[in-house]
Amino acid sequence: MVFQGYIKRGSMLTRSITALAALIVPFVSSESSINGGHQNAPAIATRDGYSTQKVAPKVVIISMFDGEEEIWFGIPEFDILAQNITVTGFSPQFPAAHCTADGSICQVVTAMGEINAAVTITSLFLSPLFDLTSTYFLVAGVGGINPEVATLGSVTLARYAVQVALQYEFDPRELPANFSTGYVPQGSYEPNVYPGSIYGTEVFEVNDALRKFAAGFARTAVLNDSTEAVAYRALYDTPEGIYKAGTEPPSVVECDVTTSDNWFSGRLLGEAFSNYTKVLTNGTGVYCNTAQEDNATLEALLRGHIAGLVDFSRIIIMRTASDMDRPYPGQAATTNMWYSNQGGYPPALKNLYLAGVKIIGGIVGGWNETFAQGVNATNYVGDVLGSMGGTPDFGPGPASQGQTSKRKRATKRQARSHL
Predict the structure, then answer these.
(1) Among 209, 336, 177, residue whose Cα is nearest residue 269
(2) If residue 94 lies in a helix (H) or strand (E), which one and from where to where?
(3) Are 264 and 290 in contact (CB under 8 A)?
(4) Could you tell me which residue, 21 or 396, shows the higher pLDDT?
(5) Distance between CA atoms of 161 and 261, rounded to whole angstroms?
(6) What Pfam families does UniProt report for this protein, alphabetically (predicted)?
(7) Cβ atoms 106, 69 nearer than 8 A
(8) CB-based contact 323:345 (threshold 8 Å)
(9) CA 275 – CA 378 distance, rounded (Å)
(10) Rounded Cα gap, residues 288 and 149, in angstroms
């Protein structure tokens, strides 16, 4: 396929974003000039010379590491390496954004983990080199999969992103007898309840109408698989059928993503985070995929939206399944993490491209008819605090409706408990 008409994964995280903004805003002011009411961007090196025109992509692919980055190189649909643009504040490992010659499609690589993601995405929208006000962002990464919901190689598209590790944590050997997990929501005193103390990054909800467009485009792809993955899936076949979804071929599944800097493996952790996803989304979210970056990426983009630099309703969260998040019956959790040849990683990378290129083609190809003006959301879009306006359909409600006092009450409870 050739697209016609255009060239072919209150906290340290919060402090990191704030500090970065202080560094980059002076750069924006000094590197940009106003002439005749128009902002002139610094010169951008291209294969054919230099350009001073801001890049205004229709789609930005957000990758997290080199494997996810390089799957987009040398593809027939478009040349993502036609422009390589060094951006102040990007990771030293991945200092440049890649763009097609006409700038309609770009790619950034955040480096792995929440802090790297937040800093890179903040650097992107604060850069004077880009106009991102009409850009769609395609988070395109691999991750672990919950075999109760999907399988190796599957393409998942999320409505919710849940920061599952932002909790109190106790060593399981020191738990009370009635605790099912060592994770307890902050400001609370038992597992599986809503947090008594909210930071604001615990859960995000993105545009579900846009997600359905993306799922429709992705389902036109013929997904990749491997013989190793086929054999490994068969190990999850149980008489009870609890992992039936994990035994089936790869498909496109609409389910939700969790964020944790900690890689985890095991049925108990998987069940704990699945339960917490339901708690934070008022029973709506379905945990299927693991990530290290997505809530950080979304928090940065939310701040960019509030600043008028990006549109938070134009975000698609796509993760492909590289490995099972828990062992098959009889296998050790450590073996699942370290020693099993699951065969899911190669097809997961390939399916990032195979499904992602359909989504990108659908957006760019339908730009004038549908996507230039944006896709109207039929659901709440934003964070747990209602920072962008509107009323969250999960959580305690917007900040203007008592969130501050709730946070203070939680702090007082914690202080009394430590006296």
Answers:
(1) 336
(2) none
(3) yes
(4) 396
(5) 14
(6) NUP
(7) no
(8) yes
(9) 25
(10) 6
Q: How far apart are CA 262 and CA 259, in angstroms?
A: 9
Report CA 381 to chain centroid distance, whole Å: 15
What single-letter amino acid sits at 145? I
What's the pLDDT band for 53 if we cut at 50, 70, 90?
confident
Between the CA of residue 236 and those of 119, 231, 342, 384, what are the distances in Å?
39, 10, 12, 35
Task: Transcribe 177-229 into DSSP letters.
Answer: TT-S-SEEETT-SSSSS--SS--S-SEEE--HHHHHHHHHHHTTS-----HHH
Report the C-alpha gap between 104 and 372 in whole angstroms.
Answer: 12
Specify the long-range contacts of residues 409-418, CB closer than 8 Å, at least 24 apart.
Answer: 409/196, 410/186, 410/187, 410/196, 410/197, 410/198, 411/187, 411/197, 413/187, 413/196, 414/187, 414/197
Domains of the chain: 12-25+39-417 (3.40.50.1580)
- CA distances, 184 to each of 36, 42, 180, 194, 282 (Å): 57, 49, 10, 9, 17
C-alpha separations of 325 from 11, 39, 403 in Å: 27, 48, 34
For 122-143, the pLDDT digits (tens) are: 999 999 999 999 999 999 999 9
Q: What is the pLDDT of residue 51?
A: 56
45 CB neighbour count, 10 Å cutoff: 13
**Continuous segment of H or E residues that includes residue 33:** strand 33-35
Tokens of 21: 């903004």
Q: Model pTM?
A: 0.85
Using an 8 Å Cβ cutoff, are 266 and 331 in contact?
no
| Cβ-Cβ contacts under 8 Å for 228 (sequence gap 6 or more) | 341, 342, 343
Burial class (CB in 10 A: 0-12, 13-18, 19+), 415: exposed
Q: Are 100 and 284 in contact (CB under 8 A)?
A: no
- Contact in structure between 339 and 360 (CB atoms under 8 Å): no
pLDDT of residue 29: 37
Amino acid code (one letter) for 158: A
Q: In DSSP terms, which residues pair with 319 in a beta bridge?
A: 141, 156
CA distance 202 to 281: 10
Side chain identity at residue 84, one-letter code: N
Where is pLDDT greater, at 42 or 352?
352
Torsion angle, alpha carbons of 60, 64, 65, 67, to 10: -60
